């Protein structure tokens, strides 16, 4: 469990570094991007190994209804993390589509994974997404939305999200985490 907690904490620290410690981050210049990227990769590795090794109480699991709801939420999560919202006509005024999509991803995974390691991983990352949105809003209160795009772009990115969900679900199945049924 310690590796998992360290991974989530490192994810938080790497992503909030420039906003929490701008005096330390700014002098690093472009080298700082590499340090942050390395920290993010390390956090992902720690989270993967930590999650696979972690053990904890189990409260709920997969159910056919929650699997279907999870997959529906995942389509929207994938769409929001795509360029669709900034290039389309439906969500172009949304300030944080990627972080909202990320939060939906965590919520969807908590719906079908009711164990302590999942609470730490998906709950910790979901809270991070909400905190990140608040920190960005506080640091940059003035924001102008993108110009409205074409509904065709929304349709293209939504279709791509469905295809991507199928691929991700297939890979999950290969790893022993069946995503469909």
UniProtKB/TrEMBL annotation:
Keyword Signal tagged: no
Keywords linked to the UniProt accession: Membrane, Transmembrane, Transmembrane helix
Topology relative to the membrane: Multi-pass membrane protein
Record carries keyword Chaperone: no
Residues that span the membrane, as ranges: 32-51, 63-82, 94-112, 119-136, 156-180
GO cellular component: membrane
A Pfam family that the UniProt record links to this protein: NnrU
InterPro entries: NnrU_dom
Subcellular location: Membrane
Primary subcellular site in the record, as a coarse category: membrane
Name of this chain's protein: NnrU protein
Provenance organism: Antarctobacter heliothermus
